[in-house]
Amino acid sequence: MEPIIKEIHTNVMEGNVTSVKANVQAAIDAGIPVSDILNDGMIAAMAEVGHLFEEGECFVPEMLIAARAMQTGLALLKPHLKNAEVVSAGKVVVGTVKGDLHDIGKNLVAMMLEGAGFEIIDLGTDVPAEKFVEAVRNQGAQIVAMSALLTTTMPSIKNTIDALNAAGLRGQVKVMIGGAPVTQNYANQVGADGFAPDASRAVATAKELMAT
Amino acid sequence: MKPRDRVLMALNHEVPDRCPMQVSFTPEFAARLEKDMNLGGEDKIHNPHGGGNTYELERSLGQDLLLTSVGWANSYYQEAKEYVDEWGIGWRSAEYETPFGVGRYTEMNIHPLAEDNAIEHYQAPDPNRPELYREAEWMLKTFKDEYWIVGVTVTTMFETAWALRGYERMLIDFALKPDLAERLLEIPYQYHLTAAKKLTQMGVDMIWIGDDIGAQHAMIISPKMWRKFFKPRMANFISELKSINPQVKVAYHSDGVVNPIIPDLIEIGLDVLNPIQPASMDPAKLKQEFGDKLCFWGSIDEQHTLPFGSADDVKTEVQTRLNTLGKKGGLIIGPTHHVQLDTPMENFWAMVNTIQQTPYSTL
Ligand code: B12
Question: What is the pTM of this model?
Answer without folding.
Answer: 0.96
